[in-house]
Amino acid sequence: xxxxxxxxxxxxxxxxxxxxxxxxxxxxxxxxxxxxxxxxxxxxxxxxxxxxxxxxxxxxxxxxxxxxxxxxxxxxxxxxxxxxxxxxxxxxxxxxxxxxxxxxxxxxxxxxxxxxxxxxxxxxxxxxxxxxxxxxxxxxxxxxxxxxxxxxxxxxxxxxxxxxxxxxxxxxxxxxxxxxxxxxxxxxxxxxxxxxxxxxxxxxxxxxxxxxxxxxxxxxxxxxxxxxxxxxxxxxxxxxxxxxxxxxxxxxxxxxxxxxxxxxxxxxxxxxxxxxxxxxxxxxxxxxxxxxxxxxxxxxxxxxxxxxxxxxxxxxxxxxxxxxxxxx
Length: 328
What we know:
It is a single chain. The chain is an alpha/beta fold. The chain has 3 domains: 3-135, P-loop containing nucleotide triphosphate hydrolases (Rossmann fold, 3-Layer(aba) Sandwich), CATH 3.40.50.300; 140-202, Helicase, Ruva Protein, domain 3; 207-326, Zinc Finger, Delta Prime, domain 3. Helices cover 57% and strands 13% of the residues. It is built from 15 helices and 9 strands. It has helices spanning 22-34, 53-61, 88-99, 121-129, 140-153, 160-170, 174-188, 196-202, 207-219, 223-234, 240-262, 267-274, 278-288, 293-311, 317-326; strands spanning 3-6, 9-12, 14-19, 41-47, 69-75, 105-110, 131-135, 157-158, 193-194. The strands form 3 sheets. The protein has a 5-stranded parallel β-sheet with strand order 4-5-6-3-7, sandwiched between helices. It has a two-stranded antiparallel sheet with strand order 1-2. It has a two-stranded parallel ribbon with strand order 8-9. α3 (88-99) packs parallel to α4, α9 packs antiparallel against α10 (223-234) and α9 packs across α11. The longest helix is centred in the C-terminal third of the chain and has 23 residues, at 240-262. It is globular.
């Protein structure tokens, strides 16, 4: 593994980013770029679904113009997977380059979301010559620790119950969490403490999350929570028919996810099935495991019946929503 010195800052010649968490990976890439003084380099980005690999290699070996260094970011590098990509000659040239990278180039290979092939020649070489960062989803404890550090960076603390509520509302959405932390930190000020009341007042509630909480309350027969959320829905500017449709879709997704899990699907497989991020799939799996399949089948059928009765004019949608309270 080689590195170059940019104004006495050590930077690797070649980086490889793997894993599933794109937001965290992009943040790490930005951190690398920010360590280099901005006046000393330029950045070029290549998507190998569009650009040929030969173009990347030529750029990497070409001396930068008017600056001392260049950063090249390569996306969709299927050449480290089982999928074929690029001409044989280009792949050979890439191998030659990786064995002797240019001192003026920082090559960042962004393979987040791809599954490297452990038998792939280029991937095996990268394991020897590149700095590899695997960006996986944080577990619940790590995620809460990360949120606490965000508040600490803002010179703010957060109470335990407030942290639990914040994570419940925002879930593992890194970009939104950073935004909500800054908002709460600005509200309480330096050396302040965020309370659950602050979170309730300032953090916007996600309708999809509230739909799930409504379903959870119905299944667990939490009458107080059901009535609270029902009132919130009826007072909402959202169309009631749209809310009912979301409730029905959530029941179906929970049932499908539970069946996929029983069929042996893992979190990453479910992310690909629904075409969602691994972070979203984590919560889909976690949520689905809270329910019994028989109950979900029953709820899906009843929601289909309710949808039919509303659309056929047999029942008004507001009464239909209220029916969720008393007929499940």
